[in-house]
Amino acid sequence: MIRIALPNKGALSDEAVALVREAGYRCKRTGRELSLIDSKNNVEFFFLRPRDIAVYVERGIVEMGITGRDLNWDAALPAKEVMALGFGRSWFWYAAPEQGNLTLEWLNGKRIACSYTNIVKRDLEKRNIKATTVPLDGAVEISIKLGVADAIADVVESGQTLREAGLVRIGKEPVMESEAIVIVKDDTTFAMPLCQTFWWRLKGIVHAREYAMIEYVIHQSKLEDAKKLTPGIESPTLMPLAEPEWVAVKAMLKKDAINGVMDALAILGARGIVISEIRTCRL
Length: 283
Description:
Layout: E1 2-7, H1 10-22, E2 35-38, E3 43-48, H2 50-58, E4 64-68, H3 69-73, E5 80-84, E6 90-97, E7 111-114, H4 117-127, E8 132-135, E9 151-156, H5 160-164, E10 167-170, E11 176-178, E12 180-184, H6 193-210, E13 211-219, H7 223-229, E14 237-240, E15 246-254, H8 258-268, E16 271-277
Parallel strand pairs: 1-3, 1-4, 7-8, 7-9
Antiparallel strand pairs: 2-3, 4-12, 5-12, 6-9, 6-10, 6-11, 13-15, 13-16, 14-15
């Protein structure tokens, strides 16, 4: 039996549990259980604080875990990221009261309030910036107004909280982009077949969420042009029809391209264009 850590609360927990259940595992709590055993799949799930999951994984106490990239990076010894899951996206920025176009060099000699001190210290060291970190357990935006910091470093989603506090982001690029990820101690984890299975199942669903299946019929004279629009993963599937001048085509397609491709196929003369969801896949 393998041990897998999942976030115990918040949006990250809800989406992680939904993904793992979609992959065929029993991991839904009925109350405040800290662990659940899925005997069918030989997995024990532990529900831990998202910030602590990297610690348990890196020390080998659990084989795999799902947490945020920012929380993993902020661990004293980050675990190895092996898959991004596509939800829980946010960006890590420095911010300060608006006073012209501030650059990161402005942070030299300043006090920076943050809840992610390890991320900030490593980033400042990389940039050769000498600043003082002020560790706080949340609500860092108010620290400047209260006089304990000159700037903050924090995870930003929409940016609304920064704007309400009268702060603007410093620099042109965020320190990092975060999202939910799967972490392991090291590559030896995948020597365990149950860990491989868990990874493949999640990967199949994550890929499937990016794609849809497109099906249509097209005249043979337009087939090559149509194949350029829907190349699929390797190549599209072609099926002959009773009408020999026409052929049925089926291919996987990136979801963000669906509408444009449908328009182009219609102009080519394609008929019966149908889009269907893909629940999971192995590429």
